[in-house]
Amino acid sequence: MNNNVYKFRDKGGESEKITINLGYVDLGRIDLLVQEGFYSNRTDFIRTAIRNQLAAEAEAVKQSIVRHTLELGLRDYSRADLESLRAAGERLHIKVVGLARIAPDVTPELALATIESITVLGALQASTELKSALAERIR
Fold first, then answer.
1. What is the pLDDT, as a whole number, of residue 47?
2. Which of 52, 75, 85, 115 has the fewest other C-beta atoms within 10 Å?
3. C-alpha of 135 from chain center
4. 92 membership: H or E segment, kind and range
5. What one-character DSSP code corresponds to residue 9?
6. CA 139, CA 118: separation in Å to the nearest integer?
7. Do residues 101 and 126 make contact, with C-beta atoms less than 8 angstroms apart?
8. DSSP strands (E only) in 49-91
9. How far is CA 104 from CA 9, 10, 58, 110, in A?
């Protein structure tokens, strides 16, 4: 099933929205850099700062991924993948850094029969029904 693991580009088309709280002084300093033309807007500054920090910590992230046996990038789980696991009597431990997607045609019954646990550092895309069925297995 590793043939459907994709490495994310540094600037992916899909993104996840986050909210942060900043102090007024930090926010003012960011606004000053935007006003002076160093960044196009606050979001541009924050994305750049995050990418720079991730680059600085890249080796630690790599080591952690290896230590935890995590897959990095986009990982799709199709109905056929899960049906093959069920036929083989195997169960899946999903561990992804990035985006894990479970196909919309996967039924809760199939997922419960084949997915033992889900750990996603990033985002999990699955139907609301599927997420509800697997709630106790999502860490």
1. 95
2. 52
3. 17
4. strand 92-102
5. P
6. 6
7. yes
8. 71-77
9. 24, 27, 33, 12
pLDDT in tens, 22-49: 999 999 999 999 999 999 999 999 999 9
139 in helix, strand or coil?
Answer: coil
d(CA 139, CA 31): 37
Judging by beta carbons within 10 Å of its beta carbon (0-12, 13-18, 19+), is residue 130 exposed, middle or buried?
A: buried
Q: At what angle do helices 24-35 and 42-56 cross, to 10 degrees?
A: 100
pLDDT in tens, 45-93: 999 999 999 999 999 888 877 666 789 999 999 999 999 999 999 999 9
Longest dimension (CA), the chain: 61
Rg (CA), the chain: 19
Q: How far apart are the first and last CA of the chain?
A: 22
Q: φ and ψ at 76, to 5 degrees?
A: -100, 140
